[in-house]
Amino acid sequence: MRIENLRKAFSSDLDHFIVTNPKNLFYLTGFQGSGVLMITPDSAVTLYVYSIEFEHAKSKARGCEIELLENKMKIEEKVMNDLKVRGAKRVGIDDLPISQYLLFKRRSRGMEILLKVDLIWKLRKRKDSVELKNMKKAAEIATHGFEAALEAIRPGATEKEVAAEIEYRMRRHGSEGLAFDSIVASGFNSILPHVGPTERKIRDDDFVIVDIGSIYEGYCTDITRTYVAGNPSVRQRRMYDAVLRAHDRAIECIQEGVMAKVVDHRARQILSRRGYGEFFVHSLGHGVGLEVHEPPRLSPNSSEELQSGYVVTVEPGVYIPGYGGVRIEDTVAVVRGGSERLSEAPYGLS
User: Fold this and answer.
1) What is the pLDDT of residue 191?
2) Phi then psi for 212, rounded to 5 degrees?
3) Confidence at residue 73, expressed as pLDDT on a 0 to 100 scale
4) What ranges do the domains of the chain cover?
5) Does domain 129-341 have CATH number 3.90.230.10?
6) According to the model, what pLDDT value does residue 106 have?
7) SS3 101
8) By the 8 A CB rule, do 111 and 84 touch?
9) What CATH number is given for 2-124 in this structure?
10) CB 195 within 8 A of CB 163
11) How many Cβ atoms are within 10 Å of 149's Cβ, its own excluded?
12) pLDDT value of residue 155
């Protein structure tokens, strides 16, 4: 069905389509590996793989024929030769390294090779019920990671030690891996939105930002909670409450037909009213799916209109140099009539 949807999407402009990105291969066929997929204007669909991937492709790939290539054969040359035999004239291709794109171009022999990244993104942005189920499971697994974080965060523990406990717990509960490198950022490190865990020892009353993601059936989740290693001060509670309110009000805005930038603006407006506007230094969120960063973006510059089936993060943050940072993030699905939080990790500073 997904292959047929892609064929319908390109048929008015192209006569063939080539897929090389492993995430797109998985989305279209169920095969997680390396290869090249050729989709023709008729019913023919061929997945080209080398011997190292052949048995895996046979067991997992659906909706296509598997063609085994000899190891000495260049996959780009074989695909382009087959396109020539089929009389291809205008061939779309998804995103790929520039070096591989140039290999295809050199062998095009009069064919137009056109980058058409957006065609597959338009399909991937809207998640079906199976995809949403997998993402809910990934979020459930991540919730176990936060339980481990709360147990591990204490004065004297290092950020790396806390991250190790989180990752072990998620693996124990079924995560296939990490959606991204875990973030455990304490004290002054918490003002750095994407800093990795270090050997820094957590101190009394530090903010500790925990930003983690698990993977289930290929699908990612992305969730953040902020804790205090000790008793939160009045200032810490004030910061946290402002970020949580911005987070909640932004989610309330999410529904079909709403512009992504409106959701971003709502969170930014609340933080500005609380006196924290200048310390919110990134966009509100991004799409999530087979990759942890996908379209659409929730940002002031976005021109995207939210549609049912989109899954996005909502992650307002306040980062005050010389003091500390707070970020709260959930993975949220756009559904008919509103939104649904896929993550259920509890809120709170401790």
Assistant:
1) 98
2) -135, 160
3) 87
4) 2-124, 129-341
5) yes
6) 82
7) helix
8) yes
9) 3.40.350.10
10) no
11) 22
12) 97
